Amino acid sequence: MTLLPSRGTNSFLSACLIAGSIILPHPALAETIGLQDALRKTIAVAPERLASSATVRATQASIDQASQRPLPELSLEADNFPAVGSDRIGTRLETTLSYTQSIEMGGKRAARIKVAKGETLASKAQHTVDMLDLFLTVETAWVEALAADADLALANQKLKISRSIASELRSRVEAGRDPKFIAARGIADANAARAEYERAQSEARARANELASFWGNGTARVTLNPADFVDLKRTPSAAGVSPDEAVYTARSRTARAKFSLEQSNNAQDPNVSVGVRYFNNDRDAALVFGLSIPLGGTSANRGNIEQARNNTIASDQTAIAAANMRARHITRLQSSLQAGIAQATRMQSDVMPKAKSALDLVRQGFRRGAFTYLDVIEAERSLIEANASLNAIRKQFHLDNALLARLTAQHIGLVDVVEAAP
User: pTM for the whole thing?
Assistant: First the structure.
């Protein structure tokens, strides 16, 4: 069976395609999704945002809890119960009702509030970081979908070239200029290109569904603008304090507050009590006062203080290391983006035109008998590989740009817009 149909069959297929174009849904009916659209749709329904917001509210509630003072105690005591079998029941019974209050010393309450406020700030900063991480995941999926569409277009280009060459080979065989196995080879190559196209088509559909699954069930029809993949637009430079640094700063602040809290725990809290004692024997009453102070002094909390001190040092150094790492990553990504733009420009202005010109010249020479079919295949392979290299450069550029946008918090404004909406 031959790959290419006859002229009559071509006419029949053309008629079917024209009719089918009337019945099938037009691609314009599918929603075209840009990056900002994908991010906005995702964060509007993301359970990660709701979970992270609930965590922030939970830490805010801890501030109120930390401000609570120790609760007082009300106690009732009875002494001098008569022995079993005694006939003087309750004669010597003494009953005491007392009110006891623990008095916090050393600024424990203020230290607890500072710890709770530090944890709240860290939770808010972490919420922003979580949303930026979600944006990175969505943008990566968006880039993967764009790259899959570009690979599909390349596979379609290869299929068209293979079919055109197969048609030429069939004409040459029919004219007796080449043996029949040459036509069979062309048909096999065209069939292989068709299989590759179908694989790329399936991959592009899967990537589009994966992208749509962030805000829906993945069944919505989504189309992407090819110009977004071709356009190599760099993320602006970072400005101000990044949310990542804000997290580490808040953690360091919390660690220092915990150190102050442990230091305040060195101060022993006295318990003061006042009450009334009733003597059943002579039916008299007396005022009772009590004071108790725990023993142990500073040695009782020495380990906790040392632990908090080292935790503070660790938090500060971790924040410095994280800031340095972020700066190195930003520098590397900016260099990679610049190199990607230079590579893509060189491919478009030099490599691609020459590869296409080479294929055209080889095919023209092949028609005249100056080149063999292997020469045509080699020229075609060079052009396809050049296109594939350009797609790979563009994909890596967009992936690096997405990571740079994450590190510099370029999409942080979307978080505030969505959360401020009623």
Answer: 0.78
